[in-house]
Amino acid sequence: MGEIYIGVMSGTSLDGIDVVIIEFSDKDENDENIKRINVKQSYSHSMPIDIKKDVLSMCQGQKTTLSEVGDLNRRLGIVYAEAINEAIKLSSIDPNSILAIGCHGQTVWHQPPTKTKTTTTTIITDSQKNDGFTIQLGDCNRIATLTGITTIGDFRNRDISYGGQGAPLTPSFHKYSLSSSKETRIILNIGGISNITLLPSNNIIPVTGFDTGPGNILLDSWIQLKMNGKPYDKDGEWANQGKINELLLKSLYDYSSSFLNKLPPKSTGRELFNIQWLLNVIESIKDNEKVRDEDVQATLLEFTCRTIVDEIIRIKNCKIDRVLVCGGGCKNKLIMNRLSTLLKDYDDSCKVSTTDEFGINSQDMEAIAFAWFAKRTLNHQTSNLISVTGASKETILGAIYLKNNFEN
């Protein structure tokens, strides 16, 4: 019998709360032929509309008060706990057997350090000067109280305190679960934001990972604005009705060049790629050209796919054998088809599929990762990779909110 943990994730897409209950094998972590992850339960809980609205308002820099921030933190903690308790109920697992919950929380602001690299000899001084921070809401005190289970949250800020980007964190889990000595892989996560992890087949080249730009975030925001709140463009059907507008595509690149042209490590979020940013880009070209709504959607899909492939093409130190896609974006057939075409144009021997093919549910990837981070933290093990985030030191991540012994 392995150890049981829960992972909870709600990303920038705000499309729901993903909860997984995981049994981790205690067998050899270095043997890639052993299945180390057993998903006991997977559950998706809808995000309440009022919470979604308040998160979006906060993410886009709207004026808010400390009272509003605190109340949103409280409400998110409660809805996370509801989702967790429902998943436990569905699984019939004894809550007393669950060692901890790893909860990412809901990002409302992510500001990586202006200067990323620190030196090991000046960690304290550099940390004092470090202007980076990240805010994920969802009160872990409430979660621990309402579930009776030790809860771990705030995973990103410790990496930032060492000069790192605080994101992406999942590459260390990708290394644990999907690396291979037989082929070099890229794990591509298309959530609200897209990020890639390079998993070389040898130990000479380090694992790297970074955000590439938008995933579903602009596509979802645009269709929600123009199609009466329709949550997403299923299979890219609306985008498929439009035509790519080259002037708009160029403007999307121009308006995000400060991020796109930056070398890794790098991370981004809704603080850059949001609906107001998109409206500003469209406004900038309206005197030259009128763009139909479906053409905007088609162009956004092209922008998303091209910015991903642009970053893959930049990788020159090894040949990519396979790209494994996960996250909500891999359910969009048009995105998957376009990515496959662009990657085949680059290297027709590169295989493209989803992580499901290798035993990791593509929709549960990030939630599983945070269950694993909770396990690492509880066992005093580090979880960040300095080759990914740019931190000066590998460190234990997260803050632990212990259950009371009388609760359960």
From TrEMBL:
<dbReference type="GO" id="GO:0005524">
    <property type="term" value="F:ATP binding"/>
</dbReference>
<dbReference type="Pfam" id="PF03702">
    <property type="entry name" value="AnmK"/>
</dbReference>
<protein>
    <recommendedName>
        <fullName>Anhydro-N-acetylmuramic acid kinase</fullName>
    </recommendedName>
</protein>
<dbReference type="InterPro" id="IPR043129">
    <property type="entry name" value="ATPase_NBD"/>
</dbReference>
<dbReference type="GO" id="GO:0009254">
    <property type="term" value="P:peptidoglycan turnover"/>
</dbReference>
<dbReference type="InterPro" id="IPR005338">
    <property type="entry name" value="Anhydro_N_Ac-Mur_kinase"/>
</dbReference>
<dbReference type="GO" id="GO:0006040">
    <property type="term" value="P:amino sugar metabolic process"/>
</dbReference>
<dbReference type="GO" id="GO:0016773">
    <property type="term" value="F:phosphotransferase activity, alcohol group as acceptor"/>
</dbReference>
